[in-house]
Amino acid sequence: MKAAALALFLALTSACAFAGAPKPAIKIENPGQCIAPAEEMRKNHMEMLHHQRDRTMRQGIRGEKASLNECINCHASKTTGSVLGKEGFCQECHSYAAVKLDCWDCHQPKAGHAKAAGVKP
Amino acid sequence: MNEPQDKSRRALMGKAVTAAAVAGAGMGVAAIAPGLHLIEVAGAAPRTAGEAASNTVRWGMLIDSTKCAKDCNACVTACNTENGLVEPIKDARQGSQWIRKIDLKDPKNGREHSLPMMCQHCANPPCVDVCPTGASMKRADGIVLVDRHICIGCRYCMMACPYKARSFVHQPLTTQNPEVPRGIGCVESCTFCVQRVDKGLKPACVEACPEGAMTFGDLNDPNSAIAQRIAREATTQVRADLKLNLGVRYQGI
């Protein structure tokens, strides 16, 4: 009886682990054009952005390879214009992984948001 | 004209242009050919990608308050537009002011004048001294900034600033300029439009001033327009007694 219960338990758990787990529905608007292969980006994008932000903010280095604005320009949804929202590139995966995103408290999450180009051309 | 001659002519022209540019660079005007001048758009060329801000440069501003009209708010409007300070604020007292106009009157003789006041970009900034996290910082080229990534919003810098130059963001924002991130819970102030300066442009307020009362440039470059005027004319630092060595200087106050 015990053995049968254990077998049933294992069968159920393994079925859940291998078949039932949902994956985040990420919509990639411009596939294949990122600054690094997808595997590397998935693993290291936070490190890239973290080091870049410090160099740009504190040392004034512009034009770095990793840039949050470039992430947004490329990955913003073509329907909502944003990387947030239900199918938003950033939010979808971060919600799935339960990792809080606080970039957007300050940064503009929409691509093509009107840039102020000064008062005179 | 055959090919070798053309090449040598180009090389000669190239040398002449370089020599003329070196001669003219000091005046803020580059001679690109005899009789033809290219007036530089800003105080210095934009830095190339990957190049850090250098301490050979010290950005500064000279404001001639004798030219500043009392009822003119163009610099404030331009700043708000450029830096995205446009969202309606629930409590008007909490609105951010990166630059504000001040009207002064000497009660003894009735002399009135007006001037814009903003972060003075001190060489020895009290806001940087007091910041408990290192968020308040001075960049190598003298621009005093808040690193919002590590600002905890304690507002100690606001207390320390003698010029009341800093503001605190009290409510969530959604209409930031992509190049000017700003948001709730952080202190902020004038950045000399760092996003424009890094591209070789002038700050928005300087560009907007209809009277040309504001001059922006490199205080360390003896040939820059601002350094030459400071060397020739009487200029004032507000509360010079604090010995903060300000990047913003005034005339006529």
Throw out a few tags for this protein.
heterodimer, A: 121 residues, 0% strand, globular, disordered C terminus, B: 253 residues, alpha+beta, Alpha-Beta Plaits, disordered N terminus
Structure, explained:
The complex is a heterodimer of chains A (121) and B (253). Chain A is built from four helices and no strands. Chain A has a domain at 25-104. The model of chain A is unreliable at 117-121 (pLDDT under 50). Chain A is globular, with a radius of gyration of 20 Å. Chain A is an all-alpha fold and 121 residues long. With 253 residues, chain B is of the alpha+beta class. Chain B folds into two domains: 3-39; 59-251, Alpha-Beta Plaits (2-Layer Sandwich), CATH 3.30.70.20. In chain B, 24% of the residues lie in helices and 19% in strands. Chain B has seven helices and eleven strands. In chain B, the strands form five sheets. Chain B has a three-stranded mixed beta sheet. A two-stranded antiparallel sheet of chain B has the order 1-2. In chain B, strands 4-5 form a two-stranded antiparallel ribbon. In chain B, strand 1 and strand 2 form a beta hairpin. Chain B is globular and about 45 Å long. The termini of chain B are far apart. Residues 1-6, 16-29 and 35-43 of chain B have low confidence and may be disordered. Chains A and B meet through helix 2 of A and helix 2 and helix 6 of B.
